[in-house]
Every structure is written in structure tokens, then in C-alpha cells.
Amino acid sequence: MNRVDVFVIMGSDSDLPKMKPAYDFFQKMGVAAEFRIASAHRAPELVATICSEASSRGARVIVAAAGLAAHLPGVVAAQTSLPVIGVPLSGSPIGGVDALYSIVQMPPGVPVATVGIDNATNAAVLACKILALSDPEIDRKMNDYREEMRERVYTRDKKVLANGPYSEVSQG
Amino acid sequence: MNRVDVFVIMGSDSDLPKMKPAYDFFQKMGVAAEFRIASAHRAPELVATICSEASSRGARVIVAAAGLAAHLPGVVAAQTSLPVIGVPLSGSPIGGVDALYSIVQMPPGVPVATVGIDNATNAAVLACKILALSDPEIDRKMNDYREEMRERVYTRDKKVLANGPYSEVSQG
Amino acid sequence: MNRVDVFVIMGSDSDLPKMKPAYDFFQKMGVAAEFRIASAHRAPELVATICSEASSRGARVIVAAAGLAAHLPGVVAAQTSLPVIGVPLSGSPIGGVDALYSIVQMPPGVPVATVGIDNATNAAVLACKILALSDPEIDRKMNDYREEMRERVYTRDKKVLANGPYSEVSQG
Amino acid sequence: MNRVDVFVIMGSDSDLPKMKPAYDFFQKMGVAAEFRIASAHRAPELVATICSEASSRGARVIVAAAGLAAHLPGVVAAQTSLPVIGVPLSGSPIGGVDALYSIVQMPPGVPVATVGIDNATNAAVLACKILALSDPEIDRKMNDYREEMRERVYTRDKKVLANGPYSEVSQG
Amino acid sequence: MNRVDVFVIMGSDSDLPKMKPAYDFFQKMGVAAEFRIASAHRAPELVATICSEASSRGARVIVAAAGLAAHLPGVVAAQTSLPVIGVPLSGSPIGGVDALYSIVQMPPGVPVATVGIDNATNAAVLACKILALSDPEIDRKMNDYREEMRERVYTRDKKVLANGPYSEVSQG
Amino acid sequence: MNRVDVFVIMGSDSDLPKMKPAYDFFQKMGVAAEFRIASAHRAPELVATICSEASSRGARVIVAAAGLAAHLPGVVAAQTSLPVIGVPLSGSPIGGVDALYSIVQMPPGVPVATVGIDNATNAAVLACKILALSDPEIDRKMNDYREEMRERVYTRDKKVLANGPYSEVSQG
Amino acid sequence: MNRVDVFVIMGSDSDLPKMKPAYDFFQKMGVAAEFRIASAHRAPELVATICSEASSRGARVIVAAAGLAAHLPGVVAAQTSLPVIGVPLSGSPIGGVDALYSIVQMPPGVPVATVGIDNATNAAVLACKILALSDPEIDRKMNDYREEMRERVYTRDKKVLANGPYSEVSQG
Amino acid sequence: MNRVDVFVIMGSDSDLPKMKPAYDFFQKMGVAAEFRIASAHRAPELVATICSEASSRGARVIVAAAGLAAHLPGVVAAQTSLPVIGVPLSGSPIGGVDALYSIVQMPPGVPVATVGIDNATNAAVLACKILALSDPEIDRKMNDYREEMRERVYTRDKKVLANGPYSEVSQG
């Protein structure tokens, strides 16, 4: 099988839309990401299989996303020596606080690098920051990305300054 | 190995004091309970081993207790067809709400029967209610226990009525 | 009256749609479930009547669902020696946390086996796990159900692998 | 049995110290209050008995205090036509929010007049405000009490003004 | 001016729709209720005027409803010796928890009888319970109301039993 | 560049609609407010530039609005000696509590004057109160504004009194 | 009476210790601050008196501190045109979140500049920032204070660098 | 200056004790970690200096720890292209939830890898997992560490099995 940089594991294919920004970011950075469906509770041995496959195919980071009692990132962390990034997903009536606590409050020794609720972009950015440590090409693209973000803020500030904040021109 | 009725699994032996009331209740009911230490994150294959041992030795219920991102009960539920009772343990700076959400908000299909934060007694009582469905001796003892609880309330009410609520006699 | 395996009690018939997944699951498992409307506050004596009827008609588990200050599961637990499963229902402006706390934080001695907010499926699955302890037919079906869940995860993972995560084919 | 103005019901005699300020306030107002121990879950029929006794002995208000999944006030409200005042008690690892939600979020039609967490004084003051509507003697004492509270604020303000806020004299 | 039984004060006329169930309940009970708009922060002296008018026109209870930092009920309680019932209104991004805490957590000596978030019905029912203590006509109607609620539960339970829970007949 | 009274800084131009009430209020008070887009994380040096520009152009208050981990107000406060008013914006799945805590819980020595979630109006009113301390014209307009708010409450109360609370005439 | 710069109002003299850091900071800045005890609920007219006195004696800012349903800052804001700074005090079983919401969530038009829970220092610093806008002496001292804070960070960083983070020398 | 692997930045030297487990873990792994004191609000330019120094001295990860409105990790992330790990510190009256939200809820594009409240160990373990990706020696030690954790669980489980859970021998 082909080498990949990152595995992205979700508890259900119904989580795919929320994780689309991660897919797009990896594309933009030229990072090979493989998206997988697993479940810590319904198919725990598949989680183990995927974690082992991630290592053998060269992945250096695993992103895991889940909602509710979001055990998937922690269960992945128990099966791999790679850094694991967790994305708490909202969707429950309590706004994803359940998923956040279930992911971030890992016991000492088995961390999950947690990003914000539904923040698939940040999972991908964090993964790329880790990859960039040993990949000058990604590092260069990441610096471009940071510069691009910075420029966009300046551009918008100038537009608001030039047109006024509530003109039709400055918004949208 | 000898048969048991219930397995009680904890994430760490530092949780033993909080689970003592479950031990005492099982003793009182004459229920054979085996207490085990495992960890969903540090020794996941031990969790699987214990779950499988629980089944082969005749356990009909598993109690699992954990704090923080309390994945243990859910991970146990993923490894067994037995009913799993989860006890969220406090101890984190946010009072055990992290453990509660991590245990109760399981995805559809893989329930954990959750009791109150630190409420080891209720885990044991619930386990015994389940055992009593097919064990007339436990059923009888459970009825005695309920009667005993009821009597204690009546006794205390009478004492407060007789002595007044804030006499030295009625308190303690 | 005919024998039943499970009683499902709700505080209001407006809760019926949220409990439909429990009905469907019991159907699928061939479990005889009787759905009842009662109210811990408006008709407490009906709760007692239903609990007593549940016992006399052979029910081995009672499921109780309620929202807001969700006392129904606890009040049921006070009237029966059977295991009681509680389903906190959302609907209030605070997302069902009120119902969750009102159900799970029962005092020592009178547990309610609490499942996730609005998680009617898990109430039914948990009830069936308890029934399966003494009913080989349900046990067999439950094992099929677990296997089916597991298979569905593998199938979806394969589809995502084969088609890519964001092709039109792999989603939906 | 002698007539009383108010019944005060607690879930356990261990709640007596937290309810002492209510006792003291009723004493100060010359209100006949009877303190009782009952339990919505362990002795539900005693709750019914006490509610019925409250009515027959002339009580016009019932105060009910409980912690955790604090069902007692709501269960009392289901058994009486009298106004019921609920006192959520802290003590659980989540600071009494469980008890607050379990008491205040009653369904439409069966209110509990909820006061602050552990605020036994306010339960008594509220009860006396209700009694004062038809009892000129209590009304007079309540006006004195309000005046006394007002005076104490003025006195303390003057003392701080006279001595400075952090002199040894002005504090304590 | 004509005598009234209850004053209902709101912070804004935009709160009127949420308080409609209280209006309807007072109508049904034959209770004379006057609805007023005031604001603890924008027109504090109007609050004082209304409180004083409430007393002089014979009101025995004041209901006050507010959202956000809901000071109105507490400010009313500071201006009257009558019992004050507070209704926390949702509408803020945090679901009315702000209003609930701002109303229920009053300091010792100045209680507000708090009902559930947006629960205008319960404010009216509680007010009528207080009025019923000295008004046999309201007392009779309140008993009818309780009986009616009880009957409705029995009726619905029977309909579900007769038709099955998910027939088209039993729902709606 | 022209002098201004207030700078209003937002993390993104997508926040402009939520801050429109501040713009309108400053217009009404005749206060010169400049709206700017900056980002504590994407363009930190722009924040510093804007803060320095605010001082040199005579601003006496800075308003900063942000959502999520809302660092902008605090980062502004670190760059200026002017009073900084922070507006927590909702939009995340947890209702803006994240932004509120991120703004109000500043460490000792570097305060941010926090107003309510999404309450752009109050940020502007507070800014004008500060400006009014040394600007009699703004002071006069602010007194008119307060009087106008007070009058509106009286007017609405009278309309409800005259028409009844639920007539078609009194609402809207 | 002598002129003052700031009034500091508390709900009770038991709040004095928590407000001591504000007193110390005002002393350090040479700001004349008068500390007063009032109560929005027990002595509302004293609040009005103090607010009016604050204006007539030249105060330009009012600090108000309260716990529980902390209405004092909002009630002060309703009585004055001066900017009002609110300090939510902890002490209740829910950690001061009640006071925070009661202070920060003011309705549009009547802001309270809220600082962190128990953060008396920040109330004083914010007050001094406002005073410094028109008082060059305070402005100079505030700049010194900021410089002093900055220096202390550099000093401590250097000490940790020089001695190592966990030497006996570098701590304390 | 000597090369380092990790920079650990804290808002105050009073946070040093809470970060001691990170120091110990880095020692154990043979990782060169430099501990620094900075402050996003009191000395923002020092944060920038330290971030730039971290890069030039070869650090591949930065750990930042802070309490309250914990901006430090996010402000560091704005100044570096390295991965940043954030440790929310408790200590405020709301248990560190303020710090958690302030760190984890970063806007898209600027992630902070968040670990649990006060969980300095997990920050260090996560940092070492990242370092291990390109450092075989650390990788080997990390595998030993994981094995050691696993062994400790087995050992404790065996001890509890051998001695019984509540013998004097098995505890401690």
C-alpha cells in the first residue's frame, strides 16, 4: 500500500462533512491523508488494525474525531506511539462539551492533542505543523499559509477603513 | 478458577477507597465480586482479557469505575455482551462532570448503565438488582435491604419528632 | 393480562416520538414491551399502579423517560425492586442537563441505570442485555446485533477507502 | 396533635445542620414549624403520610430540602395542594447544581417555589411571607425583621465610614 | 382603582408572549391579575411605584419575569413585603442559566420563589396556591385543576394502551 | 489622520453585523468611532499598530470584540494604557461561554471591562459613559438617552395598562 | 464633605477582605477612594443615597462588588450616570458563576464593566485607567505600574534561567 | 547558547510547582527542556523574544501553561511556526474551565494542542511523542515508558488479585 503522512479516523461516516475542512487543508498542503471509519465501541479491533496500518504505512500523526462520549481519540492513543490529535464534535444537546471533556481529560501518560469543538481545520493545521518539523516542503507551504492568513486580515482591515464598516462594499 | 457474580474493574488502585462501599455491599448481599485493576489507555489488552475472563467465570454484570476522560466503562462495554455499570469518579478540578459525560453519553448501541458521581453503592445495588432477577436468595436479601432502608427513615423521623430536631439527642 | 418483558414509562405522550427507537429495538429483538404514560407529579398513584402491574405481569426491567426535573425514573425506582433504566430527555433551554442530573444523581441505595440524553436506543439495548442474561433467544439476537453493528463499521470504512471520503459515492 | 404553621421535610437527618437557620428563623417569628425526616425514594409512603398530616394539622406551607437528584420537594408537591418551598442542598461534587435543577425545573402545573442553594433562611423567610398574608402578628414581625436588616446595613456603612474600611475596629 | 389579586411585572413588553400561559391560567382560575411593564435598570422608580400600588390595591402575590441578568424579581422583593415569584426567561445564548442564577441565588433575608426557566404556568399555579390558602373559591378551582391534570394522564395512558404507542390514533 | 474618540476592533469582518448596534449608538451620540479588523493570532503586529494609532489619534477607549478563545481584548489591553472594553461573541456550540471566560478572567493588573455576550450596545454605552466624564456634550446626550429609555418603559407600561396585555393593540 | 475619585460599594462588610487589593491599589496610585456598605435588597434607598453622594462629591467611577445573585452593580448602574465596574465574588457552592452572570449579562443600555471573579485588583486598575484619562498624575503612576509589572516578569524569567526552574533559589 | 528540544513557558513562576511533572518527564526522557517565565499581557514582547529564541536554538515544540483567561498558549502560537502544546491550569473558583476554553477554542488556522487541566505530564509526553518522530533515542525511551506504564497496571492488578482489594497489603 502507498505511504501516507496522516491518518484521519472518524467514529461514523456521518462525521465526514464536519471533517471536510481537514481534507481540504491536507490537499492544499500536499499532505497524503487517509480517511478511515472506525469505532472504539462497535469495532475496537478495527481501530487497532488501522493504528497498526498507520504506523506501517509511514503515518507520523493520527487525527481522530468523535462526538458524545468521544472515546475514539483516546482509544487510538492507547494503540499507537504516534501523536494523536483529537477533534471533539458537537451534535449532542449539550453542544459538544461532552466530547471535549471525553477527549481532553486523558489520564497522565496517554495524551490526546485536543483542538476546539468541530475545529477540523485546526486538527489539520496542527498535524501539518508536526509534519513540517521534518519536511521542508510542508514547512514552506505552512509559512505561506500563515502569511496568507496575515495578509487577509490586513486586506480586510484596509477595506473596512476605505469603505467604512457598514457600507455595502466592505461587507461580504 | 472459581465462579464469580460480578467483576469490578477500576482504572487504578488509587480508586479502591472510593469503591469500598461497593465491596461492602456485595459482601452484605453474599455476592461473589472480583475487583480488578485495568486501564483502557495503558493496558487495553488487559481490559479485553479481564472481560473475557468475566464471561468464562460466570459473571453476569461488570462494574467499571473511572475518573477524568473515563473511557474504561465504554471500552469494557465494547468487549463484552454483559451489562456494564459505570461509576464516574470525581477528583479532577471540574468535579467529575468530565467522567460523567465520558461514561453516560455512549453512542447508540453500546450503553453503559451510569450511576451518580462517586456513587459506588448504587453501582453495587444496581448490579444486585440485575442478579436478583435470576437468584432468589439475592432477591430476598435485596428486599430486606429495601425494607431496612425504609425502616431507618421511619426511625429517624420518629426520633426527630420525639426529641425535636436540634436537641443533642436527635442528631448524629 | 399478557406477560411482558419490559415496561417503558414516559411522563407524557409528547415524549413518544423520542422513545420510538426503543420501540423499534424491542420489536427487532422480539421483546414484549409495554409503553405507558404516567407522571410522577400529576398522577403519582398511577406510577405505583403501573410498577406493581409490571411485576405481576413478569416484567424484568422498567425503562422510564422524562425531561426537565425528571423525577419519573427515580419515583419508579422507589416503587419497584426491578432494575430501572432512566432516559433523560432534552427539550428544556438547558439541553437536558437538568434531566440528566435529576436522573443520574440518585441517593445511595436507589439507583437508576442512566443512559445518554435522548438515547432511547441505549435504554432498549441495555434492557435487552439484562434480559439476555436469562433468555438465550434474546442473547443470540443481541450477539447478531453486535455483529451487525461491527460489520456496518467495516463496510463503511471499506466504502470510504474504495471511493475516497468525499466522492459522491461514499457519502449518504 | 397540635396545630402547626409549617412542615419542614428533609431527605435525611444529616441535612439537619444545613436547615438550622430555618429553624431559628421560625422560632424568631413565633411560627410553629415541625421538622420531619422522609425520603422520596426510600420511604415514599411516609412522604404521603406527612403531607396528609401537614394538611390536617393546619400547615399552610411545606418546606422540603434535599441534595443530589433532589426529588423530595417535587414528590411532596405531587401529594399536597399546599405551596411547597424547595431548598437545593449542596454536598455533591458538582456544588448543588444537580439539586437546583432537580427542584426548580418542575413540569408545568406542579411548581416548587425554589430558593438558593443551601439557603435555608430564605425558605423560612418565604414561608413566613406567605403566612403573613393572613396572620397580622407574623406580618408585623416580618416588617420588624425587614427593618432590622435595613438598619444593620446602615449601621455597618456608618462604622466603615467612621473607622475606615480596613481599620481593626471596622471589621468583624 | 379596582382591587387585584396578583401583579405580574415584566422587564419588557417583548416578554409578553412568554408570560401568556400565566395570563391564561389566572383567567381560568378567576384570579384578577394585572400585567405591568417595568425595568429594574431603566426605570427603577417605576418598580417602586408598582410595588406600592400592588399593596394598596390588595395584591397578595407579585410575579416578576426577566431574562439575562434578571434583577427585576429581586428588586421587586426589595420593595415589597409580599411574596415574590420569579420567572427566569431564556433568550440569551446561554439558555437562561444567567436568568436562573440571577433570580434564585438571592441573599439570605430577601427570597424570590423561583420557578423553572420560561415556566410562566408554574408562576401562576404557585401564585394561585398561595391565594387559595385564604380564598375557598380559588382553592376549589385549584383542586379541580389538579384533578383535571391527573385525569388527563390516565386518559392518555389508556389511549396508548388501547391503540398501541405508535399507531396513528394514539399520537397527537 | 483625523482624531477619533473610540477604536472598535474585531477579530474578523464576519463579526461586523453583531457590532452594528455599537456603530449606531456612537452615531447617535455623535462620537467619532473607527472600526478596525485585526487578529490577535493571525496578525498580532497589526493589533499593536492599531493600538498605537488609537493613542496617537486621541482615542480614549478601545472596544474589542471576539468569539471562541477570545484573546483579542486581552491582547489589546496588553498593548495600550487606555481602558479596554471587551465584547464576548457567541457563535460556538457552547453559546459564547468560551468567549466570556476568555475575556473576563484576565489576570490581576491587566483588566478588560467586559460586557454581556453579544451585547455590542452595552460596549458602546459604557464607552460613552467614560467619554462623558470629560465631554459635556456627550454627557448631555447620554442623560437624554437614559431619560428616553426611562420614558419608553413608562409608555409601554401605560399602553399595556390601557389596552390589556394581550390585546392586539398593546403588542408589537 | 471631601472630594473623592472613586466609590467602592459592597453588599456586606464580610466582603471587605476580598476587596482589600482594590484599597491597596488605590492607595498606591494616590486615588481617593471611599468604601461603603450598601445592599440592593436590604437597603435599596441607601444605594440611591450613596450613588447621589458619589456624584456630588466628584467621583468619576463607582466600583460595586457582590456575590450570589449579585444585583448591586446593576442596581448602582440604574442610579448613576457614572461608569460602574462590577466585581463578581465567589463564595457560593457554584464558584461565583452565579455572581458573574448576574453582573455581566446586563440588558442593553445599562452596562456594568465586569472584571474577573474575586478580581478586586482589576476593578481598581480599570478605575484608575478611566481616571488617568483626565488626570496626568494618575496616568504617570499607571505607566510606572505597567512598567513595574513588565520588569517583574523579566526579572523572574532571568532568575529561573539563571538558577534553573526547580532549584531552591529560583522559587518563592 | 546551547540547543534545546523544548521550551516550556509559564505565565508566572507561581505556576512552577504545577509544571514540575513536565520537568521530571523531560529529565527521564533525556530531553533538553528550557523553562521560561513570560506573560502574554504584562510582557508581550518577551513572549515574542522567547518564541524567536526557541526557534533559533532548535526547539521543535513549545509548551505553554496558564490559568484564568489563559491567553499565553495562543499568543505563543501567533508568534511561532512550531507546534504549541497548551496546559490549562486550575486555581480560579471555576476549576480551570476558564483556562481550558481559553486555550482549546482557538480560531481556525492557529491551533493549540490542548491537554487536560493541570496535566503537565501529558504536555511533556505529547511533546516527546512529537520529538520521537525524528529522534530514535527518544522513541526508544518512549516505548519503554509505555511498556513500563503497561507493566505497572498488570502488577497492580496481580497484587489486588493476590491480596484482595482491601487487605492492608494491596493498597498504597
Q: Architecture of the largest domain in chain A, according to CATH?
A: 3-Layer(aba) Sandwich
How many discrete domains of chain A?
2
Total number of helices of chain A: 6
Of all chain pairs, the largest interface belongs to: A-H, 37 and 37 residues
Report helical residue fraction of chain A.
Answer: 40-55%
Biggest sheet layout of chain A: 5 strands, parallel
Enumerate the spans of chain A where pLDDT stays under 50 for 5 or more consecutive residues. Answer: none
Provide the succession of SSEs of chain A.
EHEHEHEHEHH
* Rounded average pLDDT of chain A: 96
Which CATH C-level class of the largest domain in chain A is it?
Answer: Alpha Beta
Q: What is the fold named in CATH at topology level of the largest domain in chain A?
A: Rossmann fold
Query: How many strand elements of chain A?
Result: 5
What Rg of chain A, in angstroms, do the CA atoms define? 18 Å
Strand order in the largest sheet of chain A: 2-1-3-4-5
Oligomer: homooctamer
Classify the beta-strand content of chain A into a percent band: 5-15%
Shape of chain A: globular
Distance between the termini of chain A: 45 Å
Class from secondary-structure proportions of chain A: alpha/beta
Explain what the structure shows:
8 copies of one chain form a homooctamer. Chain A is α/β, with parallel strands linked by helices. Chain A folds into 2 domains: 6-134, 3-Layer(aba) Sandwich (Rossmann fold), CATH 3.40.50; 136-172. Helices cover 49% and strands 15% of the residues of chain A. The first copy, chain A, has 6 helices and 5 strands; from the N terminus they run βαβαβαβαβαα. Chain A has a 5-stranded parallel β-sheet, with helices on both faces. In chain A, helix 4 (97-104) links the parallel strand 4 (84-89) and strand 5 (113-114). In chain A, helix 1 runs parallel beside helix 5, helix 2 (44-56) packs across helix 3 and helix 5 packs across helix 6. Chains in contact: A-B, A-C, A-F, A-H, B-C, B-D, B-H, C-D, C-E, D-E, D-G, E-F, E-G, F-G, F-H, G-H. The A-B interface holds A 11, 39-42, 44, 68-69, 71, 74-75, 77-79, 92, 94, 97-98, 101-107, 109-110 and B 11, 39-42, 44, 68-69, 71, 74-75, 77-79, 92, 94, 97-98, 101-107, 109-110.
